[in-house]
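If you are new to this repository, start here. Below is one unmodified record pulled from the training split, so you can see the exact layout before writing a loader.
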Amino acid sequence: MIKYFSTFSWIWTFEYVINELWLNRECVWYSEIDKHSIKTYNKHYPKHKNYWDIKKIITNDLPNFWILVGGSPCQSFSDAWSKKWFEDYRGNLFFDYIRILKEKQPDYFIFENVRWILTNNKWKTFKIINNEFDKAWYNIKRKILNASEFWSVQNRPRIFIVGQKKSLWNFNFEFPTWTKKKEFLKNILEKNVDEKYYLSNEQIKNRYKSNYHSNKSQLLNNTCCCITASGTKKRIILNEDDITRKKYYDKKLEYNQVIKLTWRTLTEIEYERLQGFHDNYTNSWISKEQRYKQLWNSINVNVLKEILKNLDKYIKKSKIL
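And here is the target side for that same chain:
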């Protein structure tokens, strides 16, 4: 029986992958405080027990488990946010992840966050993180993996840290390598999209005048830029004419040409596809904005699946040796 404890669970990306890969598994507890995310979580796993606030977790109340999974909030470490690192409340939650790791001593853990924790603050942040894992008595492997390298249509680089208890065998785990197969945004678009997602002529005109308009529209024949928690939803110009699109970027189109562009926002289902979930994975009865938010903050399914596959192979091979 593979028992795991899920921290900062959000909409359970780890659970989504673990339950697909391993038949004999059990989530001993999970920890999440966002009420909208809990609704999505309970939609799929109503019997899982929520411990809510990680800071209030009493480790003696937790049963033993084989692997700890999760990634503390990234806003404190992200290049797009405050960069207060551990001084911020959200960044400080990392130490509660460490507290559980130290006191429960599972065989393995997987930790995910934005790539900036590796180099931000002149590497000081990662030195602290690395030292904490070492003091918890774990050997670690780390690597930045991009979702676009694993059959995803999204450019989403994230750092993944996999740890093994030092008392076990030598840690020779290897991360998955990229697939070299590029996917395109046009291949994951819905066929019939409600008019509410389309921009009006006035909205197109305003964006055309903006200095940032080219950064907010995605190319159909390319991967999508990373979806983020900043609140800016990705938009696409559906016209297939690359010459017209380039002229638009260069502001060489007249207004009467601009309003002929077909421009819309990516839908919630398209966001689910960008992250590797199945359609309507998030709750259709919660607000559209909450669905976007849940997907912005999730881990890409495709990348996580390959990591867990490699971990499973490594453990089976090591036990034979």
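Two things worth knowing about this chain: Strands lie at 2-6, 25-30, 67-70, 108-114, 138-146, 157-165, 217-218, 235-237, 263-265. The first helix runs from residue 13 to 21.
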